[in-house]
Every structure is written in C-alpha cells, then in structure tokens.
Amino acid sequence: EKSLPAKVEQILRVEMTSLQKQYYRWILSKNYSALRKGNKGSPSTFLNIVIELKKCCNHAHLIKPSEHEVKNEDYLQQMLRGSGKLLTFGQATYSP
What we know:
96 residues; mainly alpha; 5 helices; flat
C-alpha cells in the first residue's frame, strides 16, 4: 500500500508589502464605524470586513486590481511585488 509521507509544516512570519499595508489601513478606516459597534453590530458586516482584510493579506490585487495594462513578461513580477507571501515563496524556491 502506498501512502503519503508525513506532512511537514513550517510557519513563517511574512511582512505585507507597502501596498498591502496601505489597503489594509484603508479597509480599517473605511469600516471604522462598523468596527466600533463591536458585538452590537451586524455579524455579517463584521465577517465581510474580516474577509476583505484576509484578501488584502493574501494579495493586494484581490482588493483593487492593477489599473494599468501590464505586459505579459512583467505580469509575474508585478504579482510577486503585490504579495509578501509570494515574495517569500519566490525567494525560498529560487535557485539560480
């Protein structure tokens, strides 16, 4: 019987890019009044805010796509620059 090897999990702390930080602060400030309501506010509104923040942490373009046309050869570089996670992954897996 074939089985998969044991899963190895590594947790890395990854900084957000400056664009991600900017969008994160924008989401918080845009939703400040809803967040101040705390548990008196709507649970669905709170959940939507959390989802937006999570999307921002994954990649800035999930919040606001690039507004200008990107050449195919520059697309990967732009996607890498938009996410701290992708930058770290790219650096960890790159071997010249």
